[in-house]
UniProtKB/TrEMBL annotation:
Top-level lineage group: Bacteria
Organism: Alcanivorax nanhaiticus
Sequence similarity: Belongs to the UPF0250 family.
Pfam family, one: DUF493
InterPro entries attached to this UniProt entry: UPF0250_YbeD-like, YbeD-like_sf
Listed transmembrane segments: none
Protein's name according to its UniProt entry: Uncharacterized protein
Length: 89
């Protein structure tokens, strides 16, 4: 993923959506990744979840503030490498 610095203004508030299997430890993995890369991330206030209609999948929405391009790229790289993550938006 290449982020063009001139298209984004930092700090940049955004919603990060992550989806995966409902029976995987996705929430724990997501909290670990975001806590590693975001100093001010608090799961209790910045993370919400929603199960799929059949309960097979779960999606998480994280309200985050990205400080720079490197931080955005590092978070997406970590999410893409996580075996519990099926999709990120």
């Amino acid at each position: 993923m290449a982020i063009q610095e001139h298209l984004w203004e930092f700090p940049h508030a955004m919603q990060l959506k992550v989806m995966g299997s409902a029976d995987a430890p996705l929430e724990e993995a997501l909290v670990e990744i975001l806590s590693t890369h975001l100093d001010d991330f608090e799961a209790d206030t910045h993370l919400t979840s929603k199960p799929s209609s059949k309960g097979t999948f779960i999606s998480f929405t994280a309200q985050v503030v990205m400080r720079n391009r490197g931080q955005v790229e590092a978070i997406y790289k970590a999410l893409n490498e996580c075996p519990h993550v099926k999709m990120t938006i």
